[in-house]
Design goal:
6-stranded antiparallel beta sheet, 4-stranded mixed beta sheet, alpha+beta
């Protein structure tokens, strides 16, 4: 395989095959019904075909579209079970796999980044990719000093592909902005653009990974791979051997899932205070259960640098929601930018909307499940519900873009693991003052 499609028109054409494919499947379904197949058989075939197309189109595009697919795979726990089963396998593959680059393409990137004699840096180098994701793929190798290493190679054209996707989103936002009166999308998309520009520079990723490794050195609960070398499009790290969380879902014994889920959530929420960094890519392919019981943490491309910890406004919002009245909560939300100055809201309706997300904080321990996740999101997309009407009046301040990504993605993974975790203790540690 060569480069992912870069030009806006080419990528838009690929994306357009998803709805076109759905239409074609509907036509084929009518033919199958006329030939005597049952409605259930036709539906099952259409869902399987849709799952295959979803993986092929988003996987081959990589870039921003691939990231959308990965986030969809996280959020499958919020979908009705009758819709999820045919898609779960393909969506899970999106979390850790994408069609691989050819050996020649990999060698070209390594030559451009490490020089013509790049092979002399390695005692051995496996040509087949060990893993692949949205903007790069990983090869297993042995460094010249004998260390087992992971060599992350960026897809040629990844930066252009990501920026093309953001540009397409920006155009869509200009057309649809009036449909969500409470949301100011322009600063959110600008924040997204800045973050993606950082993500395609592996030197910045290497710096963040080293910072994590420094603060979690010798930690009995976590393993952070050391950085061997970092270039703009090639990152060499120590190899971690373990079982991905995506494999543990539905398979590992419940005590193991509870223990790993607790470590996972603690890392996501406490790292900003402990290391000044938020690991902002929570999908389970980035977390491994090592043989010694530690949680291995991979992929530091999406990182929010928070030297003062999580935004203080988030603590104020949680405290107001937990201990204050509805008017106080709305006042805090306005001060933080979640409610724009020109938007009028019903304080009690906003309080009810926020409360739905705080259920896990009502007791010292909380057990997540797909059923809980589906129930929480059931009416958020239904225009007939009050939850939907409140949702479209709320804004997402740009400084909370990655925080929200971590919170929603983290809840989705915990729900897939169906884990019991000490929510209140972790939140108290991460955000002192948020809870009594």
């Amino acid at each position: 395989m060569g480069e992912p499609p870069q030009a806006g028109l080419a990528r838009a054409a690929r994306l357009s095959t998803l709805p076109l494919g759905a239409a074609a499947r509907a036509v084929r379904g009518v033919g199958r019904r006329l030939s005597g197949q049952s409605a259930q058989e036709v539906l099952a075939q259409r869902q399987a075909e849709s799952a295959r197309q979803l993986f092929e189109v988003l996987g081959n595009l990589k870039g921003g579209a691939m990231k959308v697919g990965q986030f969809v795979s996280l959020m499958e726990s919020a979908l009705p079970p009758e819709l999820v089963v045919p898609y779960r396998e393909s969506l899970t593959r999106l979390q850790s796999a994408a069609p691989a680059l050819s050996g020649d393409a990999v060698a070209q990137v390594l030559t451009e980044e490490l020089g013509e004699d790049w092979r002399s840096l390695f005692a051995s180098f496996e040509q087949s990719a060990a893993a692949a994701a949205s903007i790069g793929q990983v090869h297993r190798a042995v460094w010249h000093d004998g260390r087992d290493v992971a060599v992350k190679v960026q897809y040629p054209g990844a930066e252009q592909a990501l920026m093309a996707d953001v540009t397409a989103l920006s155009r869509l936002a200009r057309v649809s902005g009036g449909l969500v009166p409470g949301m100011d999308l322009a600063p959110v998309l600008e924040e997204l653009r800045r973050r993606l520009e950082e993500e395609v520079d592996y030197r910045l990723e290497g710096d963040a990974q080293e910072q994590f490794a420094q603060f979690y050195a010798d930690d009995p609960a976590y393993a952070i791979p050391g950085v061997v070398m970092a270039g703009q499009r090639v990152l060499v790290s120590e190899w971690l051997e373990g079982v991905p969380l995506s494999t543990l879902i539905d398979r590992a014994p419940q005590p193991d899932r509870d223990r790993v889920a607790t470590a996972y959530l603690r890392l996501l929420l406490e790292a900003p205070q402990r290391a000044g960094l938020l690991h902002a890519d929570p999908h389970p392919g980035n977390f491994l259960l090592l043989a010694d019981g530690r949680l291995g943490v991979l992929d530091y491309g999406a990182v929010n640098r928070l030297p003062d910890g999580l935004p203080g406004g988030l603590t104020r919002v949680l405290a107001a929601a937990a201990h204050g009245d509805a008017d106080e909560l709305v006042e805090v939300l306005r001060e933080e930018g979640f409610v724009r100055g020109s938007v009028s809201v019903d304080a009690q309706a906003v309080r009810a909307y926020v409360d739905r997300f705080l259920g896990p904080l009502q007791a010292e321990e909380f057990t997540f499940s797909r059923e809980w996740m589906r129930a929480m999101f059931a009416d958020l997309q239904d225009p007939r519900t009050e939850a939907f009407r409140v949702g479209v009046t709320l804004n997402l301040p740009p400084q909370y873009v990655l925080v929200q990504r971590v919170w929603l993605g983290g809840l989705a993974v915990l729900s897939q693991l169906e884990a019991t975790v000490p929510m209140r203790e972790i939140v108290r540690s991460a955000m002192p003052g948020a809870l009594r």
